[in-house]
Write a structure and sequence with these properties.
Elements lengths: L3 H6 L8 E6 L4 E5 H4 L3 E3 L1 E2 L2 E2 L6 E4 L10 E10 L1
Antiparallel strand pairs: 1-2, 1-7, 3-6, 4-5, 6-7
């Protein structure tokens, strides 16, 4: 699912400039909010919950990481 409605529903303040995806190992990926609104969050594959590299995968809206999504995402954070 595209993250845009979730980001907008969170009503970020004007100071919020980036969305950060936090991986289980603490590694972080960030993007400007306008770009992150096009990120696609995936919770399942082939009808099954993602267990080994989940709970969440992030794909870029342009498809550029289709073969190598951001995996093991355990949290999202808005930053200034």
């Amino acid at each position: 699912m595209v993250l845009k409605p979730f980001i907008e529903n969170a009503e970020p303040t004007e100071q919020a400039k980036t969305l950060v995806a936090i991986r289980r190992n603490g590694e972080e990926y960030s993007a400007p909010i306008d770009v992150a609104k096009e990120w696609i969050a995936v919770f399942s594959e082939n009808g099954q919950v993602i267990k080994t590299s989940g709970p969440l995968h992030i794909y870029y809206g342009d498809g550029s990481n289709r073969e190598n999504p951001i995996t093991d995402v355990v949290g999202l954070r808005l930053d200034a």
